[in-house]
Amino acid sequence: MGIFEIGAAAKAASIQLAALSSEAKNSALAAIAQALKTNAAAIFAANKQDLEEATGLPAPVVKRLTFDEKKLADVLAGIKSLISLPEPVGVVQKATLLDDGLELRRISCPIGVIGMVFEARPDALVQIATLCLKSGNAVILKGGKEARRTNAALAAALVQAVPEPAGWLNNLETREEVKEMLALSQFIDLIIPRGSNAFVQYIMANTSIPVMGHADGICHVYVDAKADVDMAVKIIVDSKTQYVSVCNAAETLLVHKDIAAAFLPKAAAALKAKKVRLLGCQVARQYAEMEEATEQDWSTEYLDYILSIKVVDSLDEAIAHINKYGSGHTDCIVTNDATAAQHFTSLIKSADAFWNCSTRFSDGFRYGLGAEVGISTGKLHARGPVGLEGLCTYKWLLTGHGDIVADYASGAKTFKHTPISE
Amino acid sequence: MGIFEIGAAAKAASIQLAALSSEAKNSALAAIAQALKTNAAAIFAANKQDLEEATGLPAPVVKRLTFDEKKLADVLAGIKSLISLPEPVGVVQKATLLDDGLELRRISCPIGVIGMVFEARPDALVQIATLCLKSGNAVILKGGKEARRTNAALAAALVQAVPEPAGWLNNLETREEVKEMLALSQFIDLIIPRGSNAFVQYIMANTSIPVMGHADGICHVYVDAKADVDMAVKIIVDSKTQYVSVCNAAETLLVHKDIAAAFLPKAAAALKAKKVRLLGCQVARQYAEMEEATEQDWSTEYLDYILSIKVVDSLDEAIAHINKYGSGHTDCIVTNDATAAQHFTSLIKSADAFWNCSTRFSDGFRYGLGAEVGISTGKLHARGPVGLEGLCTYKWLLTGHGDIVADYASGAKTFKHTPISE
Question: How many Å lie between the alpha carbon of A41 and the closest alpha carbon of chain B?
Fold first, then answer.
């Protein structure tokens, strides 16, 4: 099938998926879990071939590419948890009696067809496909090429387990197809790209389809004048070093000038003990040994054991810095001053505004949303970790008994607009 | 100020607006109402000049362009009603205890800076500006050029009434500036274009800023086999003729073949009595006199006393027709069969799915949302009539006491993920 036919099939499937019952979707998810077990040998064999070809890749990439018994167990646990999550479709979000017998409800529904482009991580294919299925969306997937045999084996097992509606899951195999997919605005409702910042920007610049992605993860920890120093040290160490190569790791530390002398030497020692390279502004360098930061550092996502440090004169300077250089992902204030915390969390434009806790909590599982398809740094629709709810939109359902607007325009009838409790 | 400076000022203002209290915003709205009264003479004089120049425009356009005592009274009533609406910012949408002392809340917040392009209708300027103010957004406005003097006078009165934060309201005067505005993705978070379909498409094709607009209003009424014939006649007459030049007016009537003989002659007579020109498929033309419809008619938004009519073999054919030719705006089924209605409303992809009522109800005021900035036919963020809620997004607020992810990664702590009732 060409990409146009794939898009048309996905669109047709999406209409059917929108009307599936919870039971039908959960049975399909159970069938997928069973098929993954039944086809495990073939999937592992395909993965072995992918891994054999993947010579010269860095260890973390190879680790992500691996799909073994352990990954299978994780994936199966994920499906089990997904089955137990509440039905996301058909939820009444708002109900208003417009007039007697004329009832308006805002009801959650699937978005339609999701185009998802992601890294060479085969377990993500299952996670994304099952999240889309549970939320009633058809999906067109393209994983990193290093995982192509594993992805093909996984997709085959999923489609075998859930043959209907045909077209609910489509696995693309080439980059060419992704490029073609970007033009299919008549079939695809949303594109979710995961990968490098440059890649996400490329997708955004080359499609008229809405894109939900994240531009960058330049997360800040701001240590306020009234911070608890030990708590602040603990939070910056966790935010920076608990897992350095992820988008919710901190990249910049901002420190109020009044606490710099008490905090910075301790923080620098703790960070250096974790092998973090420090790059500081002129003022920060008076309190601890570190290299000089350049203007470029404030907008750099290191994804590594490197941290930029700036001393600021005020809370408002910290907020302005974050709103200028941040990427709208996750930013934290450490303070014992509730007013300062409230000011900070109201004024920063980020999707995730934290007070006295590590930026690393910014994650769908940790938020209790179940799995996530990604983290959105856009401002519209879903923000932060995107799970089932972010894969849904809503429609307005109005039910009447022959009601016409002419009666209201003439004044013969008037609207009641009272909430319906359900 | 150049457009870049205007964008930067709006961005700076948006940060301040996000933290304004309800009281401050409602006082500002009251001040605006007062300033409009105080400056009424100057505004009417500006409008008189605009109207004098507007020779040769169709009567409905002149009517929209007029800003007189009656329009002022409407605008003031709108502001009064807006003041009484609940505060849209800071609403806790979801609250989860991640662990003892670690609380996650999803809280509504403004989007930031809205770029709004609209028709030559000066009362819309006030409506849009005040909706943005109440929802804590800064706004860059550009109204139709025919209203430029009135818009300038209105904008001046609004800024005089609410001088701070500077840059909350920006009134553009030229088309050139709109073009430049489309490039300001660093400052503008959302563009809402109102106007012709071609214009909205132009905006979408020429910016990387998210756009919330409606492509078209090709609304359908589908008369099912089990419809009440008299009710169906009443609904199609209202949907088509109550106000023909608006996006929620019906453009196509679909009729199940089993009811065509009973329904179509009555419907045709009632529609012709309202001077509606009928264009039908071959089968429809067997039941009433009408011209022949072409393929082009199924995707045409007439905005006039014209209706295309097609007889379908089944409910599913009606759904497929709507999903193919419709614009995702508002579509109605007329039926006494609840199962058919449920099937229809689940499977059509439109923002507004109606059962036994006129498509003309699809409107922010009628929905009880207060005023609206427009109707969105996109699938993401806000759909259908967009009021205060659609001008807000949310952020995740996580408050802790020095909590770090390392404790959960090591297994020393586990998440509780229990809802917080507030």
Answer: 30
How many CB atoms sit inside 10 A of residue A271's CB?
23
Q: Do B356 and A403 touch (CB under 8 A)?
A: yes
Instruction: Decide if B4 touches A, using CB distance below 8 A.
Output: no
Residues 315-344 of A with CB under 8 A from B: 319, 323, 341, 343
Same domain, A336 and A287: yes
Burial category of A376 from C-beta neighbours within 10 Å (exposed 0-12, middle 13-18, buried 19 and up): buried
Residue type, A1: M
Q: Which amino acid is located at B319 in the chain?
A: I
Written as one letter, the residue type at A141 is: L
Q: Any chain A CB within 8 A of the CB of B299?
A: no
Task: Please give the full DSSP string across A229-280, using - where no structure is assigned.
Answer: HHHHHHHHHHHHHSSTTSTTSEEEEEEEHHHHHHHHHHHHHHHHHTT-EEEE
Q: Give the total residue count for chain B.
A: 422
Residues A270 and A121 in one domain: no
Q: What is the ipTM of this complex?
A: 0.91
Same domain, B189 and B294: no
Q: Measured between beta carbons, which residues in chain A are less than 8 angstroms from residue B189?
A: 379-380
User: Per-residue pLDDT for chain B (422 aa), expressed as one digit of tens each?
Assistant: 899 999 999 999 999 999 999 999 999 999 999 999 999 999 999 999 999 998 888 887 898 899 999 999 999 999 999 999 999 999 999 999 999 999 999 999 999 999 999 989 999 999 999 999 999 999 999 999 999 999 999 999 999 999 999 999 999 999 899 999 999 999 999 999 987 778 888 888 888 888 887 667 899 999 999 999 999 999 999 999 999 988 999 999 999 999 999 999 999 999 999 999 999 999 999 999 999 999 999 999 998 999 999 999 999 999 999 999 999 999 999 999 999 999 999 999 999 999 999 999 999 889 988 778 888 888 898 999 999 999 999 999 999 999 999 999 999 999 999 999 87
Evaluate whether residue A413 is within a structural domain.
no
The two counts, helices (H) then strands (E), for chain A are: 14, 17
* Among A350, A381, A409, beta carbon nearest to B395: A350
Which residue from A minimizes the CA distance to B211?
A: A210
Phi first, then psi, for residue B279 (nearest 5°) are -125, 115
Same domain, B178 and B327: no
Same domain as A254, residue A201 = no
Question: Can you give the residue range of the structural domain that contains B310?
Answer: 219-361
Q: What is the CATH number of the domain that holds A53?
A: 3.40.605.10
CATH number at residue B289: 3.40.309.10
- Which chain A residues have a beta carbon less than 8 Å from that of B212? 380
Tokens 């800024």, residue located: B159
Instruction: Count the domains in chain A.
Output: 2
Residue A418 lies in a domain: no
Are residues B72 and B52 part of one domain? Answer: yes
